[in-house]
Design goal:
73% helix, mainly alpha, two-stranded antiparallel ribbon, 182 residues
Length: 182
């Protein structure tokens, strides 16, 4: 498969996982969405040339997501379906999305993460946009006033994407020949 086709398939599968997780959460079945995301991650790992590096990125991303979302919940940026109280651990479906997000770093987001400024801008815009979409679908409720929460989302995602860009570049520099799917 060409690099362009791999990136396109990777993007489509990530979007399918995003809609499964967010849609599942909106319908009160977040665990089902998390399981679908996990199955897509397993498929990605089966196809990846460098499974160890992909696993490293999954761990870094999931732990970062745990920290970012715990901060957002504690700060009152949003509440999850069912009104999870501030300070609670992020729901499984949301952490599964962070893990699945890692599967895009060396494929569909490769060009964005290759440039630090682009990755920071992507985080600043993409994080809040994803949460606005999740809120419109009913998976989360953004608290009011809206702008402080959106600012927190932008800062959290900017920092996360800067970390992910650095980690992905390190992976590429270590093993450039093991980049991509089989």
């Amino acid at each position: 498969m060409t690099a362009r086709a791999t990136a396109l398939v990777n993007y489509v599968l990530y979007q399918a996982g995003w809609f499964a997780a967010v849609g599942g959460a909106a319908l009160g079945h977040g665990t089902v969405g998390a399981l679908i995301a996990a199955a897509l991650i397993a498929g990605h790992m089966t196809l990846a040339r460098d499974r160890l590096e992909e696993a490293r990125l999954l761990v870094i991303t999931t732990l970062t997501g745990l920290a970012v979302e715990a901060w957002q919940l504690h700060a009152g940026t949003y509440v999850t379906l069912g009104g999870a109280p501030a300070g609670q651990v992020p729901p499984l479906w949301l952490l599964a999305l962070w893990a699945q997000f890692a599967t895009t770093f060396r494929y569909s987001l490769r060009r964005v993460l290759a440039r630090p400024a682009a990755s920071i801008a992507f985080g600043a815009l993409g994080g809040p946009i994803a949460f606005i979409a999740g809120a419109r679908l009913g998976a989360v409720t953004l608290t009011t006033p809206l702008w402080p929460g959106l600012l927190r989302l932008a800062v959290g995602w900017m920092l996360a994407l800067a970390l992910f860009a650095w980690a992905t570049r390190r992976a590429r520099d270590r093993e450039p020949s093991r980049y991509g799917w089989r």
